[in-house]
């Protein structure tokens, strides 16, 4: 575990130093980070997807209810698991250990990234129900996840693990909802 931690510190520091930290990029990634973990922003994105879908399939469909339930269950299950894992691992953030400087970071624990988990949980459900724009949802999730490394709030592994948790929880929720609704 100590080797992994050292490798993670080296990789995170490398990425942090490789990227230019300008006022514009700091503002852009701070904006993504501020709203990326928020249930509200993902509800707005989901609402936009529903509006686009409404043009093709007017009225409330069984599919719409399945989407809403799956979205909410995935998002909150992911968020709950992340909180439990943060307390379990209690990994300090990179800026706390003075590995990198941080911009707009929380002071709680780092492992796993809640932003990455929430972003990938939401993107996975959205992509399942709106395959035409799935690239957009995953692109936003990747940007939000990357913002956490850029801002110095997370190690690379925190983001990879958080992203994986969000994706897996949503995939399991989608699988179960398909089995239940048959």
TrEMBL record:
Fetch the InterPro entries from UniProt: PAP2/HPO (IPR000326), PAP2/HPO_sf (IPR036938)
What keywords sit in the KW lines? Cell membrane, Hydrolase, Membrane, Transmembrane, Transmembrane helix
Q: Where in the cell is it found?
A: Cell membrane
Question: How is this protein positioned relative to the membrane?
Answer: Multi-pass membrane protein
Gene3D superfamilies, sorted: Phosphatidic acid phosphatase type 2/haloperoxidase
An example GO CC term for this entry is:
plasma membrane
Phosphatidic acid phosphatase type 2/haloperoxidase domain: from which residue to which, for each copy?
68-174
Q: What SUPFAM superfamilies is this protein classified in?
A: Acid phosphatase/Vanadium-dependent haloperoxidase
Q: Which GO terms describe its molecular function?
A: hydrolase activity
Q: Does the keyword Hydrolase apply?
A: yes
**Endoplasmic reticulum among keywords:** no
The record, for Pfam families, names:
PAP2 (PF01569)
Transmembrane spans: 28-52, 64-89, 109-129, 136-153, 159-177
Q: Which residues form a coiled coil?
A: none
Principal place where this protein is found? Answer: membrane
Looking up PANTHER family in the UniProt record yields:
DECAPRENYLPHOSPHORYL-5-PHOSPHORIBOSE PHOSPHATASE RV3807C-RELATED, SPHINGOSINE-1-PHOSPHATE PHOSPHOHYDROLASE
Annotated protein name in UniProt: Phosphatidic acid phosphatase type 2/haloperoxidase domain-containing protein
């Amino acid at each position: 575990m100590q080797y992994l931690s050292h490798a993670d510190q080296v990789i995170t520091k490398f990425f942090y130093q490789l990227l230019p930290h300008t006022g514009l990029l700091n503002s852009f990634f701070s904006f993504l980070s501020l709203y990326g973990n928020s249930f509200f922003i993902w509800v707005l994105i989901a609402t936009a997807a529903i509006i686009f879908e409404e043009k093709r399939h007017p009225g409330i469909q069984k599919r719409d209810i399945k989407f809403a339930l799956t979205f909410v269950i995935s998002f909150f299950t992911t968020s709950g698991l992340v909180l439990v894992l943060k307390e379990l691992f209690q990994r300090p953030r990179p800026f706390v250990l003075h590995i990198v400087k941080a911009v707009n970071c929380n002071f709680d624990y780092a492992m796993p990234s809640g932003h990455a988990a929430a972003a990938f949980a939401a993107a996975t459900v959205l992509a399942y129900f709106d395959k035409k724009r799935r690239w957009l949802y995953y692109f936003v999730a990747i940007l939000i996840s990357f913002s956490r490394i850029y801002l110095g709030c997370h190690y690379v592994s925190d983001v990879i693990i958080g992203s994986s948790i969000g994706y897996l929880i949503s995939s399991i929720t989608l699988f179960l909802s398909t089995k239940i609704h048959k």
